[in-house]
Design goal:
This protein has 210 residues and is an alpha+beta fold. Helix content is 53%, strand content 7%. A 4-stranded mixed sheet has the order 2-1-3-4, with helices on one face. The chain binds glutathione.
Length: 210
């Protein structure tokens, strides 16, 4: 399998965590998002959305969308299980994962911020305000209330919720989002940082890190 990856991509970071938790090794192909390589025809032929990550299977099939990729990996290699077998637990875990992936992350995606800066002529200060507003007020504050007593979002083992939360906390820090009012999320973040799979997937540890 080949992962189309970029060190700072939150969505690719989710897949890296899932792969590491499951002990799966994949070939890596780096797509430099800041240089616009996601819009080159060769990459668009892999993922017409022009977004990282994508996972190319050995038969050439390309999967897109980090959550779809992770659920595929979870079905193929169910140990450790990232989406619980119990339907009620699974719905809770997916609820947090989707709140991050659908309702927070898209609002601070590169192409959205580039549009704010370029077409809408917004300053860096305004863009930072936008990111912090939608990350925190619009998102992480609610996640703080949705998670259960730790050490992970839903109990003693990491799930898809943690796999989505940790890259979103990393993105929030990049934009200097104040996080002090989120003690439960900060504790989960610290716990995950000590887990070798989460540590190995960190952007700073990737071969393309700058
Ligand atoms: N919902 C998608 C989001 C993918 C996504 O937005 N990727 C970002 C990096 S985190 C990207 O490739 N951005 C490039 C751009 O906006 O041009 C997923 O979960 O895979």
């Amino acid at each position: 399998m080949k992962l189309y990856d970029y060190f700072r991509s939150s969505a690719a970071y989710r897949v890296r965590i899932a792969l590491a938790l499951k002990g799966l090794e994949v070939e890596r192909v780096f797509v430099h998002l800041a240089r616009g390589e996601q819009r080159l025809p060769a990459f668009l032929a892999k993922n017409p959305q022009g977004l990282a990550p994508a996972l190319e299977l050995d038969d050439g099939t390309v999967l897109t969308q980090s959550l779809a990729i992770i659920e595929y990996l979870d079905t193929l290699t169910p140990s450790p299980r990232l989406v619980p077998a119990d339907p009620l637990r699974a719905a809770k875990v997916r609820g947090v994962a989707l709140a991050i992936a659908c309702d927070i992350h898209p609002l601070n995606n590169r192409r959205v911020l580039d549009y704010l800066r370029g077409r809408l002529g917004q300053s860096e200060e305004a863009v930072d305000l936008w990111v912090r507003h939608w990350a925190l007020t619009g998102g992480l504050e609610a996640i703080e209330r949705l998670v259960e007593p730790g050490p992970y979002c839903f109990g003693a083992e990491p799930t898809l919720a943690d796999v989505c939360l940790i890259p979103q906390m990393f993105a929030a820090r990049r934009f200097a989002t104040p996080l002090a009012a989120l003690p439960k999320l900060l504790a989960i973040e610290a716990h995950c940082a000590a887990h070798p799979a989460f540590a190995a997937a960190h952007p700073a540890r990737q071969p393309d890190a700058e």
